[in-house]
Amino acid sequence: MSAPNFRGRHFLFAEEEKEYPSIGLDFDKEKRMDTRVALIGIVVEDTNAVEEINHLLSTYGEYIIGRMGVPYREKGISIISVTMDAPNDVISALSGKLGMLPGVSSKTIFAKYSRGKA
């Protein structure tokens, strides 16, 4: 795997930049659709899931506005917040995949408006 390519507000690994066959999404088509702003809250109780979480977040990096991770050492968990601007299906797919990982919980909050519909 190569070093991250920083492109403004997100990053992608060079090998993953052009095609995403593993998740079955056509990102060019998805970009033309209406998008929504959402926040995915992730609670990580099992550190063995961290590598897969980072892989999923880099795969969906095209839509991620920003992310913040906070370790809560006293409880032995980590809390990650991911802000996205993406079609509803993309947001739901990422949240669902994160929530299916062992030792990981995720919930999504959507903004009340869509892009261009303030």
User: CATH homologous superfamily?
Assistant: ACT-like. Chain A, domain 2
E-strand count: 6
Tally of domains: 1
Mean pLDDT: 80
**What CATH architecture label applies?**
2-Layer Sandwich
The residue ranges in which pLDDT falls below 50 over 5 or more consecutive positions are 1-21
Molecular shape: globular
What percent of residues adopt helix (DSSP H or I)? 10-25%
Order of helices and strands: EEHEHEEHE
CATH topology: Alpha-Beta Plaits
Strands in their spatial order, largest beta sheet? 4-5-3-6
Query: What is the number of helical segments per DSSP (H or I, 4+ residues)?
Result: 3
- Give a short account of the largest sheet: 4 strands, antiparallel
Strand share of the residues? 35-45%
Structural class: alpha+beta
**Overall CATH class:** Alpha Beta
For the terminal residues, how far apart are their CA atoms? 40 Å
List keywords for this structure.
globular; four-stranded antiparallel β-sheet; single chain; two-stranded antiparallel sheet; 3 helices; disordered N terminus; 118 residues; alpha+beta
